[in-house]
Design brief:
Layout lengths: L1 H32 L2 E3 L14 E5 L11 E5 L5 E12 L2 E7 L11 E2 L3 E9 L2 H8 L2 H54 L3
Antiparallel strand pairs: 1-2, 2-7, 3-4, 3-7, 4-5, 5-6
Helix pairs in contact: 1-3
């Protein structure tokens, strides 16, 4: 019973370790193959929560419509992700009125199409925190330490499991020897000389 529980714990830990590793590799591939940004403010909540990772696609400006969520670079260099409220055509080109879902009013200035980095195609809640952590040396070291400690824990559980199995085999052999000796002793005492 104890061995079965240990085997179950070991299998769950191995599965969790593999899941974490596959998730990290997938996240790394996702961020390398796509243009991504981390949402660092709450202006798009609840649709896109703080700490989300957003991936962009790049439609032409005339394909962006009201309701689309776009990432823009403001004139001061700040990157903002807001929803398009309306698109307007003016002599200087296409402009967008944008607003954060959590904001009470649209942004005070219209955004020129050239400031639009892209349209949000996918957002992954919480993944931005992980990407931000992995962007630092301390975050990478922490993650490597977590993976190494997971492997060490799995190894220790395997060793403990092997010791329990060996002990059970020794007990079974001793029990067989005792039964064999008892059976052998009865046949000698019951024999006629």
């Amino acid at each position: 019973m104890v061995i079965a529980a240990i085997v179950l714990v070991r299998r769950v830990l191995i599965g969790a370790w593999i899941l974490v590793l596959v998730g990290l590799i997938s996240l790394a591939v996702f961020t390398r193959l796509n243009t991504t940004f981390i949402i660092r403010g709450g202006s798009m909540e609840p649709a896109i929560p703080l700490g989300s990772l957003v991936s962009l696609d790049f439609p032409p400006a005339n394909a962006i419509r009201a309701g689309d969520v776009v990432t823009i670079t403001a004139e001061n260099g700040v990157v903002i992700t807001h929803r398009v409220v309306r698109a307007v055509e003016l002599p200087e080109g296409r402009l967008f009125e944008v607003k954060g879902d959590a904001n009470s009013a649209p942004d005070p200035t219209l955004v020129p199409a050239r400031a639009v980095v892209g349209r949000v195609a996918v957002h992954l809640p919480v993944a931005g925190y992980l990407v931000a952590m992995l962007a630092s040396v301390a975050g990478v070291i922490s993650l490597l330490a977590l993976l190494a400690s997971g492997l060490l824990t799995i190894w220790l559980i395997e060793e403990f499991e092997a010791e329990l199995i060996d002990e059970r085999i020794r007990r079974e052999r001793r029990a067989q020897e005792v039964r064999g000796a008892a059976a052998g002793g009865r046949s000698r005492h019951g024999a006629i000389a």
